[in-house]
Structures are given as structure tokens and as C-alpha cells.
Amino acid sequence: MDIVRAFRVVSIAEATSFLILLLIAMPLKYGADLPVAVKVMGPIHGILFIGYVGLAFIVGEKLGWGLKRTVLALAAAVLPVAPYFVERHWAKPVGAAGAEPQPAGRA
């Protein structure tokens, strides 16, 4: 699998796991006294988060992201739905339809 495609998959999975953790697991933990929901989803989300961050560096270099875009993509990892934006708008293979390669240093 191409590294950009892997990043796109991990971006979607990371954002989705974050939403599940916030909207389902946390209310189950505190509202229904079921801490097992967070015990299951927490580590899954943690692994996806680490994968997202690592792949963001690799893909950023491959796609010619500048420092600003790379930092914004990393910051997106701590916002619940921001990785969806990164996946949809920034993680396009160079030369893909509608995707213009970004010169180095530009975000």
C-alpha cells in the first residue's frame, strides 16, 4: 500500500476513534458506570494517534508540505474532526486529479 494511502486510512481511523471515545466511550464510562468502554477504545485510539503523527511526518515530506502545513496537520491530531480535513484536502498524491503539488516551504 502506498504510504499516502496508508496515511489517509489512518487519518480517518484516528478521527473516528477519537469521536467514538468522546461521544460513546466517555458517556458510557461516566454515565453508565462502564469504564471498560474507555479501557478498550483508549489504547486503540492511542495507537492510531501515534501512527497518524508518524505518518504525517513521512507523508508531509513526500508531498512537499512546508513546516506550517506539517505543524497544522500534527495539530489536527488533537482536534476531534480535523484529521478528516487533512485526509480530504491535503493528503492527495502528487499529480492526482485536482491536487496541485505544493512547493517546499508553502502551506
UniProtKB/TrEMBL annotation:
UniProt keywords, alphabetically: Cell membrane, Membrane, Transmembrane, Transmembrane helix
Localization per record: Cell membrane
GO cellular component annotations of the record: plasma membrane
Record keyword Repressor present: no
Residue ranges occupied by any DUF3817 domain in the UniProt entry: 5-91
Membrane-crossing segments per the record: 7-28, 40-58
One Pfam family it belongs to: DUF3817
Entry annotated with the keyword Transmembrane helix: yes
InterPro entries (UniProt xref): DUF3817_TM
Domain of life of the source: Bacteria
Name of the protein: Integral membrane protein
Membrane topology, record value: Multi-pass membrane protein
